[in-house]
Amino acid sequence: MNDTVIVTGGAGFIGSNFVLEWISQTGSKVVNLDLLTYAGNHENLLSIEKDPRHVFVKGDIGDRKLIAGLFAEHQPRAILHFAAESHVDRSIEGPEAFVKTNVLGTFALLEEAKAYWNGLTGKDKQDFRFLHVSTDEVYGTLGPDDPAFSETTPYTPNSPYSASKAGSDHLVRAYFHTYGLPVLTTNCSNNYGPYQFPEKLIPLVILNALEGKSLPVYGDGLNVRDWLFVKDHCSAIRTVLEKGKVGETYNVGGSSERKNIEVVHAICDILDEQRPSDKIGSRRSLITYVKDRPGHDRRYAINATKIREELGWQPTQVFEGGIRETVQWYLDNMQWVENVKSGAYQQWIDLNYSERLAK
Ligand code: NAD
Ligand code: TYD
Predict the structure, then answer these.
(1) In this structure, which residue's CA is closest to atom 33 in ligand 1?
(2) Per-residue pLDDT tens for 2-38?
(3) Domains (ranges, CATH) in the chain?
(4) How far apart are CA 137 and CA 102, in angstroms?
(5) Can you tell me the distance from the alpha carbon of 346 to that of 266, in angstroms, rounded to the nearest whole number?
(6) In whole angstroms, what is the distance from residue 62 CA to residue 107 CA?
C-alpha cells in the first residue's frame, strides 16, 4: 500500500476544494471518482488537470466493477466519500436519484471497500480508513432554544435528502459494527465558499444580486443555519482522517449560526460596497419573500465540542470574514460562473422558482 487516497465526488463543491488542498498540502496521489452530474464540474480541477498526482475517473459510485478495479489498481490507504446528491429542493422534486446515489451508491462503496480491506494484511489493514462525509441534516430540526446537535442526538431526518444521508450513515455504522471495517463519519453543517454550484442559497444570492435579479427568500427568512467556510470543513476532514478513532462520528460546525435573512443582507451589503450600481440601487430592495420549502427545517446548530477536545480541530473563519472571501471569489471568477450557468442550470431555476411566485 502507498499514500494514495480515493476521493469520490471530487468535482463537486466540497470535494474539489478538498482535492485541490490535498494535492498542494500533502503532495500524495488522489484518484478522483466523479460521475460529473449537473453538480460536478471539471473546471474546478483545471489547475491540477495535468498534475500526475491527480487521476480523474469519470464513473458512478454504484458501479461495483469499476470500484473494485480502482481499489485493485491503486491500493489506496483510504477512501474519502463525498459523492452525493446534495440539494434539498431537488430531493423534493425527484427523490429517486437521492436513494440511488446516497444509499445504494454508498452501499456499493462499502461492499467493495470491505472486499479490498479483507485482502489487506498487517499495517496496511490496520491503517486503512473509509471516511464518510455526511451532514447535520440527519438530526432533523431544532427549536430556537434547543441545544445544538451533538453526536448522540437521535436521527430524525425530514427531507428525502437528509433521509438518504441518514440511511448511508447507518450503513457505514453497520459495516464497522458487523464487519469491523475501519470507518469514520463526519456530520457537518452548511458549507459556503469557492466553487459552490449556484443553486444553493449563498451563490444563488450573490449571482442574482450582481445581476439585479430578485433574491428569493423562502418563508419568513428566519430559518437558521450554522455556516462553515469550506476550507475549514476540508481541514476537519483531514484531521478526522489522521486522528479520528475508528467507528466514531464527529460533528463539524462553524460556530456561525445566522438567520437566512441575515445571510442575504450580508451579501447585499458587500456587493453594494464592492460593485455599486446606480441602476440596481440598494441590493436589499431585491429581496423577495417566496413560498416556503415543504417541510423546511427551522434551525440547525452544531455542538463541535468532541472534534475540538478530542482531535484539536476548530474553524478559523467566522461568517463575516468567510462571506467576504466568498463574494470576492465569485467576483474574481466570472468566467467560471458563466460556464456553470448552462442550459441545465437555467432549467432548474425555472422549475424551482416559477412555482414560488412572490408571497
Ligand atoms: P455537490 O452536489 O456540490 O457535489 C457532489 C458531487 O458528487 C458532484 O461532483 C457529482 O458529480 C458527484 N456525484 C453525484 N452522484 C454521483 C455518483 N453516483 N457517482 C459519482 N459521483 C457522483 O455536493 P457538496 O456540497 O460538495 O457535498 C459533498 C458531500 O458533503 C455530500 O456528501 C453532502 O451530503 C455533504 N455535505 C454537504 C454540505 C454542504 O453544505 N454543501 C454540508 C454537509 C455535508
Ligand atoms: P440551501 O443552501 O439549499 O441549504 P440547506 O437547505 O441544505 O440548508 O438553503 C439554505 C437555507 O436558505 C435554507 O433554509 C433554505 C433557504 N433558501 C432560500 O431562502 N432561498 C433559496 O433560493 C434557497 C436555495 C434556499
Answers:
(1) 86
(2) 899 999 999 999 999 999 999 999 889 999 999 999 9
(3) 5-192+230-253+296-317 (3.40.50.720)
(4) 14
(5) 25
(6) 8
Place of cell 455599486: 276
Positions annotated as catalytic residues are 136-137, 161
Which tens digits make up the pLDDT trace of 45-94? Answer: 999 999 999 999 999 999 999 999 999 999 999 999 999 999 999 999 99
What is the grid cell recorded at 234?
476540508
Residue 358 neighbours by CB distance under 10 Å: 9
> 276 CA to middle of ligand 1, Å?
34
Cell of 56: 480523474
- Supply the residue whose CA is at minimum distance from atom 44 of ligand 1: 135
Residue whose CA lies nearest to ligand 1 atom number 10: 40
Question: Ligand 1 within 6 A of 80 CB?
Answer: no
Q: State the DSSP code for 200.
A: S
Q: Are 234 and 82 in contact (CB under 8 A)?
A: no
